[in-house]
Structures are given as structure tokens and as C-alpha cells.
Design goal:
This protein has 522 residues and is of the alpha/beta class. Helix content is 39%, strand content 20%. The protein folds into 3 domains: 4-238, Alpha-Beta Barrel (TIM Barrel); 244-348 and 492-518, 3-Layer(aba) Sandwich (Rossmann fold); 362-484, Rossmann fold. It binds NADP nicotinamide-adenine-dinucleotide phosphate.
Amino acid sequence: METKLAVPIAARNIDQAGEQIKSARTAGADILELRTDYLENLNLDLVKKLIADVKNTSDKKLPIIVTCRDKRQGGAIDYPQKLRVDILAAALKAGAEFIDFEYENFISIEGQEKIRLALSQSSRGRLILSTHNFETKFDNIGKLYRKILNVCPIAIPKLIYVANHINDCFEAFDLLHQTSAERIIFCMGAGGLISRILAKKLGCFLTFASIDELNATAPGQLTIKNLKGLYRFDCIDTQTQLYGVIADPVGHSLSPAIHNACFDDKQMNNLYLPLLVEGGRQDFDSFLHHALMRKWLNFRGFSVTIPHKQNALAYVRVSRGYVEPLAQKIGAANTLLVGPDGKLEAYNTDYAGALDAITTGMKISRAKLNGLPVAVFGAGGVSRAIVAGLTDAGAQIKIYNRTIEKAQNLAAEFNCEFAPLDDLKSLEAKLLINCTSIGMHPNVEATPVPKEFLKRGMTIFDTVYNPAETLLLKDAKKKRIKTIDGISMFVNQAMAQFKLFTDTDGNPDLMRKVVCDLLPAE
Ligand code: NAP
């Protein structure tokens, strides 16, 4: 069963509805859901006219779901039960292919009779019996599913709940996996976002997407543009292999866009998801456990970023998987691979990405890093990966940081020198690397190193990639000093991940273009 893309039409009047329907058609909707509870001055004639307008178009005929949602189940305007039932009955008569009615109302009131009668008089109209939990998971989703089908075996059950954490999605996935009839099951909220995309992989009858952010009718609903463009909706099938970035927050990550663009470029049946894993190590462990124990989900690899890089390393160590020696030394993994036997491998592509950016930018081999005097600004996660990689290659490093204890600890661990961030009198380096967030959007007027300390013969590498050209790099360019930008490192680490994930090379030019297109214009 091919999952359909349903687009809600949530308009206040018939003109607005017409505009929305046009946009939904253009964007590629498979089904229109007329949310009549949004219409002001709702009456039967209004709904009949709306249906007739959709049916009489010369464009592709789209099936219609008519919904008049009870306010207690997320409806917009609080219309009385009798009117809502009359609207659904009239919609069937007017040719709507589906009506959506609340299961709780269907079993408890006289409306059931009217709905059943209207269904029996309609040649093709179908009933969606829906139930929503806007607070949390259902107590027993499997039991509720069976109850709905017991009450009306010909109905399409629709069970929607808020996932307060991504780990809440797995019950919805299990129910989809265990059943094969037409059914609609997914989760709302930021934690439920992936369930709206994976609905297609798991054979859900439909999933919803909005015309734009303004017209979303439920928390966490994606736009059609994102679902189809960013998340490759049209390519997803039961065989699709899954990847994703585990992070918190994850909304601004560029990784889904670049990896999915490369999967598209190579026509691979792979999908890369944003995996919002909130909480600490326990939540991270629980997510991986849930994701990996369900082999049918087919997760093959993960990017891992703040705040879970250490958790990722610990997970693979405990599960006795393979840990790349330098990832071990850095104490953090940003890439996890899932082998065919389910065994995990942990890598760190941050240091490799940075080292490749440096050697390409300076036009030298890795061997030439041996003995190179380097000034590293910052003593956080990125600095740690780069310091580990550069000391491994034999570079002579001095670490400058605002919090001197952190510089001291990092320097002690990797046998480097250290100094306070503003102690620049003695700055003598061939390569200067900014690993602080100074100069990052929106503080673009800041620089970690005033321009008078930048000298010809140096190479300046800024790991900050938003903006692509920081003040530090602008100052260096004005003095005709060689520069390397943060996008190079970002693209290199993504290239290394792509290679680990797929055993093929990604397209670096495409990755850079995607990153540049997504970054805010300066
Ligand atoms: P982190 O662990 O939080 O470390 C932040 C570093 O920046 C610390 O050394 C911190 O100094 C310093 N810092 C922050 N604000 C400062 C300020 N106002 N004045 C002086 N020092 C300041 O972060 P991270 O993960 O290492 O990331 C650092 C930067 O790397 C990010 O901002 C990002 O732009 C860049 N990055 C680039 C890539 C890439 O692929 N190109 C990937 C990831 C990150 P204290 O120790 O004193 O707090």
C-alpha cells in the first residue's frame, strides 16, 4: 500500500480554502483534508460547495477527507456535535471519499446512527475513526486499535499521540509493523517528527504535511516542501535504509540536507533523519537500544553531535563494538556504523575533516604537519578533536583559551603549551586555528585574534562556518594571508561520514552548495 500525502485545508472561508487547495495541488498533495471546523459560519451548503469546487476542477481529481474536528480533540471552532455529524453525512452525499470522525464520539452518542446510515447510502465513502492524545502516549495503543476495529471493522483506525520524547515513537512503529490493514498511526510534537516521515516506510495509509508553517494544523507537522524535498518522501519504501543525526537541538543541523542531497545524487534508497534525542546518557542509550533492536527499521548509521558524542563512544565500548583509536583518544565519537550483524563501530570524522581541510588549504601532505607550529584558539569539543589529530600528526601546538584551566588540562593531556586567550605577544605560528565560537552568527563583528597579530606567512583556519567568511578570515584576506573556512571542515567530515555510511564518495561540491544555500545571507 502506497502511503498518501494528505494536506489539510484549514481555511476561514471559501476563498481562502480555494487558495490553499490550489497551493496543495501544486505542491503535490495526494489527498486533501478539508478541516471544516476552521470555517467560519459553518453550514451544509458551504461544505457542499467546497467539495463541488474540488470535484469540478479540470486538474487531477484528488480524493477528499472531510473532517469537522471536535474541539476536545484539537478542533478549531467549537461547533455543536449535531452540526458536525450533519456536515460529515452531507459530505458523503456530496462525494467526499472519506470522512473523519472521533472514535470517542462515535461510540458514545446517537451520531453513530447517522454516520452509519450515510455510509450505507454512499457508494464509495469510507470512515476514518480517529483518536488523539495531545498529552502523551496512549495507555495501550494495541488494545485501542483493536477496540476501534471491533466497533467498526470497515473503518480506517487513526491513532495519533504526542511523543514527548523520540523514544515514545517506537510504540507507533511497532503497531504499524504488526498490522497491515489500512491504518493511520503517527506521533505529534517535535519528538514525533520522524514518525511522520517513516509512516511511508512502515506502510501507514497516509501522513500529513502542511502547505507552509503558518498552515500547520498539528504540532510537529512538516511542510510538503520539507517532506518531499528534504526528506525524499517520494523515494521512501519498505526497503529504505535509515541514517540520521542524533543531537539536541537538531532543528538547525545541516546534516540532513547534505546527506539526503548526496543520497539523491547517487540515487540511493537511503534516508537521513534528524533524530532529536533529549536528555542524557540513559535517554541516548535507550534510543539506540530501541532503534537497533528493531532490525526492520533498518538503521545503518548515525552522525552524533552535541551533547551525545561521549555517550556514543561509551555505548559502543559497552556493547563491545569497534572504536577507532583516535576517537578513543579524543573521547568522543561523531559517527556510528551499524554492521550487518548489528555490531557497532565508532569513528570521529571531525579531526579527519579538519586535517584534510588544513592539508588541502595549505597544499601540503599530512607528513608535513610534523613539527608545524600551530596556535589553537579554544579548548572545547572541536579544539579537542583537532588537537588530538594534529598532535598525532606531530604538530607543535599552543592552546589559547578564555578559561585557562581548560587550556591547561587539554595541553597536559596532549603534551602541548597553553596560554590565556589574550596573551598574543608571543604568537608565533605557521597555522592559526579558531576553535572558539567567537565570530559566529549573530556576533559577526567579533574576532578571537585582532588583525595586528595576523602575519604574512601564516595560514588562518576558522572552524566557524556560519558565516562562511568570518571577520577573522576577512582580516586575513585583506592582508593577503592564506585562509581556510569552516565549511571545508564541515564538508570534509560529512564526506568522511558518507564514505563510512555508504562505502562510496559523496559529492563535495554538492555538499558545499547545500551548506551555502542554507546558511543565512550575510
Ligand atoms: P564548545 O565545546 O562549547 O567550546 C567553545 C569554545 O569557545 C571554548 O573554548 C570557549 O571558551 C570558547 N568561547 C565561547 N564563547 C567565547 C567568548 N565569548 N569568548 C572567548 N571564548 C569563548 O564548542 P565546540 O563544539 O568546540 O564548537 C566550537 C566552534 O566550532 C563552534 O562555535 C562552531 O562554530 C565550530 N564548529 C565547526 C564545525 C565544522 O565542521 N566546521 C563543527 C562543529 C563546530 P571557554 O572554555 O572559556 O568557555
